[in-house]
UniProtKB/TrEMBL annotation:
InterPro entries: N_methyl_site, PilE-like, Pilin-like. The chain crosses the membrane at residues 7-31. The lineage of its organism: Bacteria, Pseudomonadati, Pseudomonadota, Gammaproteobacteria, Pseudomonadales. The keyword Membrane applies. GO terms for biological process: type IV pilus assembly. It comes from Pseudomonas kribbensis. This is Prepilin-type N-terminal cleavage/methylation domain-containing protein. PANTHER family: GENERAL SECRETION PATHWAY PROTEIN G, TYPE IV PILUS NON-CORE MINOR PILIN PILE. Keywords: Membrane, Transmembrane, Transmembrane helix.
């Protein structure tokens, strides 16, 4: 009598698990970078929104000091404004313990003259690589 065996052998299951592991190993860094790129775009947008708020206030009052309603950041960055009567500097600092803590783009800054830059960024990165423009 012959019995037909149904199902998968242990070797077949181990091969499938190994293939899935290889795919995850290759895809995970790409997915993480994709998420980081989105978070960088979000903080750049927040900085631009704050700059617009400051410029509207300046148009009405001829000074930047005294502005209210500025954002403090999001889950990944803390935004700190340094405001004087005629100038401002917005700094988005990465929060420790988040996925952005070791990001290659570092911390973002935006001035009243529209100068965008990065602090503590990996050498060789252009501003457009991190700001998206």
């Amino acid at each position: 009598m012959r019995r037909s065996i149904r199902g998968f052998t242990l070797i077949e299951i181990m091969i499938v698990i190994a293939i899935i592991g290889i795919i995850i190993t290759i895809a995970a860094p790409s997915y993480t970078e994709y998420l980081k790129k989105g978070r960088r775009a979000e903080v750049a947008s927040l900085l631009n929104e704050q700059a617009q708020t400051l410029e509207r206030f300046y148009t009405r009052n001829n000074v930047y000091t005294g502005v209210t309603g500025l954002s403090t950041g999001n889950d990944f960055y803390t935004i700190t404004p340094t405001i004087a009567d005629q100038t401002y500097l917005l700094t988005a600092t990465r929060k420790a313990g988040t996925t952005m803590a070791g990001d290659k783009c570092g911390d973002f800054t935006l001035t009243n003259t529209g100068v965008r830059s990065m602090i503590n960024a990996t050498a060789g990165l252009a501003t457009k690589d991190c700001w998206g423009r």
